[in-house]
């Protein structure tokens, strides 16, 4: 019995590739073992506020400045409990202006909390080794040798915060050239191929994560 936290951030409610990819992983996870649970949070449909108070960046025991108001702290408690209570995480997002959708950035700002989800002088790494799957869809080409190589500034943020800061075991998956249409048939075929490969890989990964019963 395992729990997956499933996040989507695309502003496209229909026809979104990142949503389809995360849904495939989530379905395989749910079906992998009886009792598996998926908690879905749609960061676009139910947007979080921008971080309203700097004190939210620190857990209470290591906070030096003023405390946040009770309502903001309660929202953060819900979000961090959701993350800490999950055995695995999948995050789907499109690249927007070379960066993260702001809805996803708001989630990161709420859940990256030294002293709670990330190590501090007085706490360990509660999420160490837990699986995080980061799924990016990108209109352009960010592959090796492409002019945009290295310009996806979103995936590295997630790898840094979830992986290096929180200690999660991050797997990154990306699909390029999603905006290529019939006027660019070769690029469109490559995008379809990358999408099909990502779909298969995420289904398989969802199944493996869903069969991993050991609760962290
Ligand atoms: C506001 C906005 C900004 C975008 N900026 C970029 C960008 O900087 N680089 C890029 O490759 N694609 C960009 N795109 C295209 C999306 O990343 C691409 O269409 C993606 O596949 C959408 O994912 P989805 O199908 O899950 O919604 C942008 C799209 C929108 C709507």
TrEMBL record:
<dbReference type="InterPro" id="IPR023048">
    <property type="entry name" value="NADH:quinone_OxRdtase_FMN_depd"/>
</dbReference>
<comment type="function">
    <text>Also exhibits azoreductase activity. Catalyzes the reductive cleavage of the azo bond in aromatic azo compounds to the corresponding amines.</text>
</comment>
<dbReference type="InterPro" id="IPR003680">
    <property type="entry name" value="Flavodoxin_fold"/>
</dbReference>
<feature type="binding site">
    <location>
        <position position="10"/>
    </location>
    <ligand>
        <name>FMN</name>
    </ligand>
</feature>
<comment type="function">
    <text>Quinone reductase that provides resistance to thiol-specific stress caused by electrophilic quinones.</text>
</comment>
<feature type="binding site">
    <location>
        <begin position="137"/>
        <end position="140"/>
    </location>
    <ligand>
        <name>FMN</name>
    </ligand>
</feature>
<dbReference type="GO" id="GO:0016652">
    <property type="term" value="F:oxidoreductase activity, acting on NAD(P)H as acceptor"/>
</dbReference>
<keyword id="KW-0520">NAD</keyword>
<dbReference type="InterPro" id="IPR050104">
    <property type="entry name" value="FMN-dep_NADH:Q_OxRdtase_AzoR1"/>
</dbReference>
<dbReference type="GO" id="GO:0009055">
    <property type="term" value="F:electron transfer activity"/>
</dbReference>
<comment type="subunit">
    <text>Homodimer.</text>
</comment>
<feature type="domain" description="Flavodoxin-like fold">
    <location>
        <begin position="3"/>
        <end position="197"/>
    </location>
</feature>
<protein>
    <recommendedName>
        <fullName>FMN dependent NADH:quinone oxidoreductase</fullName>
        <ecNumber>1.6.5.-</ecNumber>
        <ecNumber>1.7.1.17</ecNumber>
    </recommendedName>
</protein>
<comment type="similarity">
    <text>Belongs to the azoreductase type 1 family.</text>
</comment>
<keyword id="KW-0560">Oxidoreductase</keyword>
<feature type="binding site">
    <location>
        <begin position="16"/>
        <end position="18"/>
    </location>
    <ligand>
        <name>FMN</name>
    </ligand>
</feature>
<dbReference type="GO" id="GO:0010181">
    <property type="term" value="F:FMN binding"/>
</dbReference>
<keyword id="KW-0285">Flavoprotein</keyword>
<dbReference type="GO" id="GO:0016655">
    <property type="term" value="F:oxidoreductase activity, acting on NAD(P)H, quinone or similar compound as acceptor"/>
</dbReference>
<keyword id="KW-0288">FMN</keyword>
<dbReference type="Pfam" id="PF02525">
    <property type="entry name" value="Flavodoxin_2"/>
</dbReference>
<dbReference type="InterPro" id="IPR029039">
    <property type="entry name" value="Flavoprotein-like_sf"/>
</dbReference>
